[in-house]
Amino acid sequence: MASTTSPEVSLEVLPYLRVLKDGTIDRIAGTQVFPAGLDPQTGVLSKDIVLIPETGVSARLYIPNNITKTDHKLPLIVYFHGGAFFISSAADPLYHNSLNMLVAEAKAIAVSVNYRLAPEHPLPTAYEDSWAALNWVFGGGEDGDLWVKEHVDFGRVFLVGDSAGANIAHHLALRVKASDADPKVKIAGIGLVHPYFWGEEPIGGEVTDLVRKSMVDKWWQFVCPSEKGGDDPLINPFGDGAPSIEGLACGKVLVLVAGKDILRDRGRLYYDELVKSSWRGRKEYTETEGEDHVFHIFNPNCEKAKSLIKHLASFINQD
Questions:
Q1: Quick one: CA dihedral 216, 220, 225, 228, positive or negative?
Q2: Please, what is the Cα angle at 213 between 211 and 219, to 5 degrees?
Q3: Which of 40, 92, 208, 288 has its CA 20 to 30 A from that of 280?
Q4: Residue 148 in contact with residue 111, Cβ under 8 Å?
Q5: Sign of dihedral through CA atoms 171, 172, 175, 177?
Q6: CB 165 within 8 Å of CB 197
Q7: One GO MF term, please (predicted)?
Q8: Rounded CA gap, 141 and 125, in Å?
Q9: Position 1 confidence tier, pLDDT thresholds 50, 70, 90
Q10: Which residues form the catalytic set?
């Protein structure tokens, strides 16, 4: 008779993941995958490609269908998915659907990066993988992809991400050195959707929402068990040791937040600090009232989600 004993759990990171006593990572969410290919609803074509063979870092590439002219270059969206750094992937059906919608609306090429996840690959692996992917985009050469080489306007490359992916986009834009005389990587702008920033000291709605404050504290401690906790420079852009946002090497920034999101006040703080700083790029901020974290991923067909995608597309195509 087969044993029905449940595996012993050493740690729960609810509602997404369990760590078993034997060290096995049991992901409860973000594990589904959807194949690349032609999306009949949007006409967007996608394919999977390995970017960095040494690490296995891959990406899902998207292109509007029926693109034939190579003399008409399109903007490029380098996209970083969310998932608190420990769940989901570029092949997640929810992200695949969202990228199809964004690429169709923006009439852009997209490279959705499949960075490696914690805890198997502790931070800063996700940042290093994403940086390697960004350098792959600009690397070109014989190893480049024809969709990117033939159709991308490299003067219009945007970093876009939601939640943890927005955090990554922020850090990569700081990593690019605007002071370089001839920078290899050039970023036109970053789109931060419900960005995953945090801090030890609660602000705004965090002060009274102790349950969700504790939950996010636990998520971050799980992927980055540093002494600084929520004030680690990776998660708190205004904590001790964090690089100044004045170093953002791009021409414009869009910050999108959701009114019911526990991360809402961190996104607002980021925008306010950017406005007060000496950074001279264009700054935009929009709050979607009555919605929660990454609602557009989970409910993509609601009108507010469609509006968010249109806003992102407009940001990408504005001069």
A1: negative
A2: 105
A3: 288
A4: yes
A5: negative
A6: no
A7: hydrolase activity
A8: 25
A9: very low
A10: 163, 261, 293
pLDDT, tens digit, for every residue of 129-153? 999 999 999 986 556 688 999 999 9
Higher pLDDT, 67 or 8: 8
Determine if the pTM surpasses 0.85.
yes
Residue 250's φ and ψ, nearest 5 degrees, are -155, 170
Query: Where in the chain is CATH 3.40.50.1820?
Result: 34-317
Which amino acid belongs to residue 47?
A: K
The Cα 261–Cα 238 span in angstroms is: 20
Q: What is the rounded CA–CA span in Å between residue 172 and residue 169?
A: 5
User: Looking at residue 226, what is its pLDDT?
Assistant: 86
Three-class SS of residue 112?
A: strand
- Reply yes or no on whether the pLDDT at 2 is more than 80: no
Residue 278 near residue 216 (C-beta atoms within 8 A): no
Q: What angle do CA 286, 292, 296 make, to 5 degrees?
A: 70
